[in-house]
Design brief:
Blueprint: H1 20-43, H2 49-59, H3 63-87, E1 92-97, E2 102-107, E3 110-116, E4 119-120, E5 124-127, E6 132-135, E7 141-144, E8 147-150, E9 153-155, H4 158-163, E10 176-178, E11 184-189, E12 192-195, E13 206-208, E14 212-213, H5 216-225, E15 231-234
Parallel strand pairs: 1-15, 4-13, 12-14
Antiparallel strand pairs: 1-2, 2-3, 5-6, 7-15, 8-11, 9-10, 11-12
Helix pairs in contact: 1-3
Length: 235
């Protein structure tokens, strides 16, 4: 992670629309599960008393009510699809699931790449001498690519020295560390970056100080595809 702004929480719009594809999948799954349950109830012999009751209820459903419910579901799916298409334009976008530690590269609504990543640990560090504290969280919300750097150098912020029990240097060169962030770094604001890592075995875990770590191959693909302004959704 570059910069010294760690754990800054940002108030951003709700990300429900980001999960349009997931919602569509849930709706489809609900219909499939309902069908499976129905056929199991009808064709299983001998059915339990509770199953018989369910079958009776299904048999007595009004056809007009069922058609209305189906029509409402189809209408909702159309609206969700329209929202998805408005949200996910034809240009690339980066999606980060910080709960599952997965990163996706989208082209419109199509997933062209997905891989493991690592996001903020959520741990807190306190500097009792300076009465400061940092919470190592990856911010959630809508961001965009603000810049790209090749062969990045990490300028260790104050917390990095406090974490190691070291004295905080006053000169900038003493903070510079090369070859720890991979070949590239993609900035998305407030000192946060998508970058590489020396600890690839830990990818898929919440272990960072707030930045998003990926492996070399994923980082190269993101760097080559993303441009300034490319959307980054983190949830």
């Amino acid at each position: 992670m570059l910069g010294s702004k760690v754990g800054l929480k940002r108030v951003t719009p709700a990300l429900a629309d980001v999960r349009v594809r997931a919602l569509l999948g849930v709706l489809g799954a609900a219909v499939l599960v309902s069908a499976v349950v129905f056929f199991r109830l009808v064709f299983r012999r001998p059915p339990a008393e509770s199953q018989v009751e369910v079958v009776r209820e299904i048999a007595h459903l009004d056809a007009k009510v069922m058609r209305k419910q189906i029509s409402l579901m189809e209408s909702r799916i159309r609206r969700l699809t329209e929202k998805r298409d408005r949200l996910l334009q034809a240009s690339p976008a980066i999606l980060v699931d910080s709960a599952e530690n997965k990163i996706y590269l989208l082209q419109g609504s199509k997933v062209v790449m997905q891989d493991k990543c690592s996001t903020g640990s959520g741990l807190e560090l306190t500097d009792r001498r300076g009465n400061r504290s940092w919470t190592f969280e990856t911010p959630r919300g809508y961001f965009s690519v603000l810049g790209k750097v090749s062969n990045p150098v990490w300028l260790r912020p104050d917390w990095a020295f406090i974490e190691e029990g070291e004295s905080i240097p006053k000169d900038r060169p003493s903070r510079a560390v090369a070859d720890v962030l991979g070949d590239y770094a993609i900035a998305f604001g407030d000192g946060y970056f998508i970058h590489g890592t020396l600890y690839t075995r830990m990818l898929g875990s919440s272990v960072t100080h707030g930045c998003i770590r990926v492996d070399d191959e994923t980082l190269k693909k993101l760097y080559q595809t993303a441009e300034r302004g490319t959307p980054i959704w983190i949830y």
